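Service request form, structural biology core

Requester: graduate student, group of Dr. S.
Request type: structure prediction, single chain
Budget code: on file
Notes: please return the result as structure tokens.

Sequence provided:
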Amino acid sequence: MILVTGATGLVGTHLLMKIVKEKHKVRALYRSETKREHAKKIFSYYLTDQADTLFNTIDWVKTDITNIPDLSDAFHEITHVYHCAAWITFNPKHYKKLRKINIEGTANIVNLCLINNIQKLCYVSSIATLDEEPNVPFIDESSEWNPEISKSVYAITKYGAEMEVWRGAQEHLDVVIVNPGIIIGPGFYEGGSGYLFKRINAGMKYYTSGSTGYVAIDDVTNIMCQLMNGACTNKRYIVIGENLGFKTAFTLIANALNKPVPTKKATPVLMKIAFYLQYLSHILFRTKRSIFKSSIQSAFSSPIYKNDAVKKELDYTFIPIEKAVKETAQHFLSEI
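Core staff response, request fulfilled:
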């Protein structure tokens, strides 16, 4: 039986759909009925008449990766684990909670994999754990974490989680790590790339000069399953379809939504002013912050990620990002 953590998130939900369509027995961890119902809604959008039948084949367990007693029970009869659970925030005030979920939670998963003789663990990390190196024009699987570079609290805890997975590998657990870029996929519009669709649909006007790697959700889940079922172990793979500038990505999304393209270029000075204004508003009125020092840094950096390793390993062809954007926009418009 397969265990999926974070089963009601973007990756987890789409991975579940792929697994149940292939008739595998699967157990899924979820934290709230609201999230599980949202996952069921995504099933209905894609699977129509089969949605209820396939959704009900899943053995749902309500717990989280920090609850060791319940988590231990969830490993009964499990042979393979997809660890998708994580908390995403860039707010430094949540660092302790991030560590608890992303690092300690992953340590719990690794320990239970070792105790239960799990055949293979696939962990969903992030390109945020990989750094540019001097005189190297790209980032690939050999690129290492540089502790001297300022990082987001999210990146720090994802790197810590990776260290737990590599510890498991040293203790003879077969593992594979995927490092996706920004994942484009339908159904989740309050965070990640989905929030971009919401913001641009509402008339977002600004873009920054940076760039990053993007990937379609179907590519992420397809690659995860192929790596899990393949012979490769104890390796990481960068999973990105294309490197795109933020202006290009925002333009693709705006066009797909039939909305005006963001045309105002935000400068680092403007972003810093917005950062301090938000911070002041948060102090005075407890408003929610969305701009942090780490996000300003990312907004103006332009790393180039290489996906040659996974393409060679699996003989894989990635979905064009424009196609993924159009499909996500179609779902987004059907929901509003």
